[in-house]
């Protein structure tokens, strides 16, 4: 290290979990400044990533002149604690905070600086050029008042601080040096390689939409800008050569630039063909570009790159979409995308948010019911609405308009191991628990119906959809009935009740301001989504779960006065049990059926026309995904969590349509329904 240079440390604490993607934001910021001849002569730039004990981190930054911290909602409190400790150890060091969680209006800036006297300067907006100019102004003779986009302490100012003019955006991204190509990422790899789980990659910047709950909704960042294709080709070459399996593209709307994004996808495929990497490509897909998304996704999937199309609808309730300024893809276009993907063996993930303005309990449940598709590849996930710094929804005016009440609690990335922070601080998020149209009691009901319902639906997928197709019982009607019965009579349904209680406990932890997610027995160190945790609970005691689900179905059918053929329905349960991962683990299962239910369920799960149900003996073999072979119960639980609860086995009909003789009475009234569990009859046992 050149002792004549002043040390600049750029710090990103990451998420604090085992999800550690090679960081992009602060490496772009540092790379831009280091490319300036004046700054490279005056400063030595170094990078610190991840979250060791914070005192260890401060020890690892000797003689700092400037410590710049990248602040997001998952690390802002830790970043502030680093700034505090740096100031205690090095009073002359300049602490600079930038990123999405830095306040951007004058009043909040004043409160923030008052609460955190160890913070010297705030950078607002895109940081590359502003930070570079800031370092220039920190040299002898500089004047911070000349620089737009910052706030800093000035005891001669009326409020004891100054906020300069609005930051601009970087119109020409070619001005930004690539940290992949200038050696910065290589330095990070040398230091952190064993802890890195993937790469962040930016191909475009800016979002043309204005969703009020999203940081990208800021009108200042609406202009869509793109990186040069030659640069991207060189960057993906670096990623493949360094054998990274997973890329997450930070673009707000990948696929919106159809021909260009097809070219980017082709680069990813070419790189995999050359190096065997990357293998997975995560991305925020364009919100309103159905056919264009399909073409890009086809290039990736045909090239062996794993990806899932996320349809971020958030809600199907029009007043809610209007309130948050959300413009969704049309339902016809969405269905076209899904059907085209399913025809090629692809999958989709519909994203739903609980707690948005104007949503009611009834409209939220209706959204979930619509998302509960009978096609196996058509998945959905529920997110809690967070109030994110600097978004319109988090503003005082929105809080007042929609009567928003939130709870601060510990936040965490979903289904991730969190490291011990015995000498650290907890990161908090603010979760909406009440609005003008969804008071807290309704939010409680919606939370339980959403998360408990999701878990029951995943593990009971085929029986629930059988009731929908053949007896007009909507999935959420089944779920609401089940929850009501569990609340009334938990003793008869211990496994279902245990899953429900986990969801209820997690809900209360949010309302009490404790944590958004928690672990389960055996996986206490994992922050697990409540629906995934309930799935693991059900699958851990799957034999009992399926017995209880069958009995619960009987109660619902009796309450509605519906008769059905129980031999057929038990075949549906056998098919369900064989289709999901249960413990003890079987990589391959063979099951015999009295009917052609395997063909019917296969058709339903793949969106094909349903054959007529016939009393014909059928044998089917079920095969687990080849990458799943858990050896212990703990491995099994981790597999369930990693796959967000359920990954369906493939089904092969090996002996179809052998006619058998059945008793004359095959459609039993509910009053003569068998009382023993179907697992006790031998057909569903491993």
Shape annotation: globular
| Structural class by SSE content | alpha/beta
**pLDDT under 50 segments (min length 5)?**
659-686
Largest sheet: 7 strands, mixed
Work out the strand percent: 15-25%
Largest beta sheet: strand ordering: 3-1-4-5-6-7-8
Question: Helical residue percent?
Answer: 25-40%
Q: Treating each run of at least 4 consecutive H or I residues as one helix, how many helices?
A: 23
Describe the 3D structure.
The chain is α/β, with parallel strands linked by helices. It has 23 helices and 24 strands. The strands form seven sheets. The chain has a seven-stranded mixed β-sheet with strand order 3-1-4-5-6-7-8, sandwiched between helices. It has a four-stranded parallel β-sheet with strand order 2-9-12-13. The radius of gyration is 28 Å and the shape is globular.
Features:
686 residues, alpha/beta, 4-stranded parallel β-sheet
Give a concise summary.
This protein is α/β, with parallel strands linked by helices and 686 residues long.
Topology, element by element:
Blueprint lengths: L5 E7 L8 E2 L2 H10 L2 H6 E7 L4 H6 L4 E7 L5 H14 L4 E5 L7 H10 L5 E3 L3 H11 L12 E4 L7 E3 L20 H9 L5 E4 L2 E2 L19 E2 L2 H13 L4 E9 L3 H18 L4 E6 L4 H13 L6 E6 L3 H6 L7 H13 L4 E7 L6 H11 L6 E7 L11 H6 L3 E6 L5 E2 L10 E7 L5 H20 L1 H11 L3 H14 L5 H18 L6 E3 L2 E6 L1 H11 L1 H19 L5 H14 L8 E6 L3 H9 L10 E8 L9 H10 L7 E10 L27
Parallel strand pairs: 1-3, 1-4, 2-9, 4-5, 5-6, 9-12, 12-13, 14-15, 15-16
Antiparallel strand pairs: 6-7, 7-8, 10-11, 17-19, 18-21, 20-21, 22-23, 23-24
């Amino acid at each position: 290290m050149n002792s004549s240079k002043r040390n600049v440390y750029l710090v990103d604490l990451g998420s604090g979990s085992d999800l550690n993607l090679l960081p992009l934001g602060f490496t772009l910021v540092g790379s831009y400044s280091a490319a300036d001849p004046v700054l490279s002569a005056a400063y030595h730039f170094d990078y610190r990533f991840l979250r060791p004990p914070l005192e260890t981190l401060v020890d690892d930054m000797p003689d700092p002149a400037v410590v710049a911290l990248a602040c997001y909602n998952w690390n802002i409190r830790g970043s502030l604690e680093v700034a505090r400790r740096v100031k205690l150890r090095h009073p002359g060091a300049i602490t600079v905070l930038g990123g999405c969680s830095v306040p951007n209006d004058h009043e909040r800036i004043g409160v923030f600086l008052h609460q955190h006297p160890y913070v010297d300067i705030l950078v607002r907006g895109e940081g590359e050029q502003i930070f570079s100019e800031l370092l220039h102004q920190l040299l002898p003779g500089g004047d911070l008042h000349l620089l737009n986009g910052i706030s800093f302490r000035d005891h001669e100012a009326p409020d004891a601080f100054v906020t300069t003019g609005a930051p601009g955006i970087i119109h020409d991204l070619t001005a930004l040096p690539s940290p992949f190509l200038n050696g910065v990422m290589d330095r990070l790899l040398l230091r952190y390689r064993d802890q890195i789980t993937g790469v962040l990659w930016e191909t475009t910047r800016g979002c043309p939409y204005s969703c009020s709950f999203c940081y990208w909704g800021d009108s200042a960042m609406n202009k869509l800008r793109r990186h040069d294709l030659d640069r991207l080709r060189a960057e993906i070459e670096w990623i493949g050569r360094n054998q990274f399996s997973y890329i997450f593209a930070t673009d707000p709307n990948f696929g919106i630039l159809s021909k260009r994004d097809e070219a980017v996808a082709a680069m990813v495929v070419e790189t995999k063909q050359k190096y065997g990497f990357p293998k997975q490509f995560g991305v925020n897909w364009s919100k309103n570009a159905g056919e264009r998304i399909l073409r890009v996704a086809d290039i990736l999937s045909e090239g062996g790159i794993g990806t899932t199309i996320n349809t971020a609808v958030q809600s199907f309730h029009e007043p809610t979409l209007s309130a948050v300024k959300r413009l969704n893809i049309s339902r016809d276009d969405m269905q076209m995308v899904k059907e085209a993907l399913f025809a090629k063996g692809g999958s989709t993930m519909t994203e739903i948010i609980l707690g948005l303005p104007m949503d009611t309990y009834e409209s939220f449940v209706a959204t979930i019911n619509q998302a509960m598709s009978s096609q196996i590849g058509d998945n959905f996930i529920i997110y809690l609405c967070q109030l994110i710094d600097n978004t319109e929804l988090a503003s005082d005016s929105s809080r007042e308009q929609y009567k928003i009440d939130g709870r601060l609690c510990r936040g965490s990335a979903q289904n991730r191991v969190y490291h011990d922070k015995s000498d650290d601080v907890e990161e908090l998020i603010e979760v909406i628990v009440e609005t003008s149209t969804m008071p807290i009691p309704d939010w409680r009901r919606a939370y339980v119906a959403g998360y408990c319902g999701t878990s029951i639906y995943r593990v009971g997928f085929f029986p629930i959809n059988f009731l929908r197709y053949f007896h007009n019982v909507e999935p959420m009607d089944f779920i609401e009935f089940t929850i009501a019965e569990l609340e009334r009579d938990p003793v008869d349904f211990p496994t279902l009740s245990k899953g429900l209680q986990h969801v209820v406990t997690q809900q209360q932890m949010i309302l009490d301001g404790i944590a958004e997610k928690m672990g389960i027995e055996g996986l206490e160190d994992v922050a697990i989504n409540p629906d995934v945790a309930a799935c693991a609970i059900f699958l851990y005691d799957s034999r009992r779960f399926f017995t209880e689900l069958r009995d619960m179905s009987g109660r619902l059918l009796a309450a509605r006065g519906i008769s059905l053929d129980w031999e057929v329905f038990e075949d549906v349960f056998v098919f369900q049990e064989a289709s999901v991962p249960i413990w003890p683990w079987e990589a391959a299962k063979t099951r015999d059926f009295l009917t052609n239910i395997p063909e019917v369920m296969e058709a339903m799960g793949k969106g094909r026309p349903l054959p007529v149900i016939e009393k014909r003996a059928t044998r089917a073999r079920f095969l687990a995904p080849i990458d799943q072979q858990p050896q212990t119960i703990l491995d099994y639980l981790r597999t369930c969590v990693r796959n967000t609860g359920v990954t369906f086995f493939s089904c092969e009909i090996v002996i179809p349509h052998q006619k058998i003789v059945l008793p004359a009475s095959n459609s039993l009234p509910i009053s003569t329904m068998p009382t023993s569990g179907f697992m006790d009859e031998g057909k569903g046992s491993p």
